[in-house]
Amino acid sequence: IGLIGAILAFVISRRFFEQLGLLLGAAARVSKGDLTERVPVLSEDEAGAISTVWNDLVVELAKHKGQAPRR
Prior knowledge:
The protein has 71 residues and is mostly helical. Helices cover 70% and strands 0% of the residues. The chain has two helices and no strands. The chain has helices spanning 2-31, 46-65. The protein is elongated, with a radius of gyration of 15 Å.
């Protein structure tokens, strides 16, 4: 049971950190003015929810800056 739990924790944390890495890359590009940047939503958990909110945020920023969003 301990090994199964460790494997499960590894898989979950790996997915979370993959999503986090994508968000960090997108944040760097948006901070340089690229408001067409979107993050793929890879899951339906909290990490996926953050990605969805991020994408919505960038769309709204692009609207206010006059840039057409890429979907």
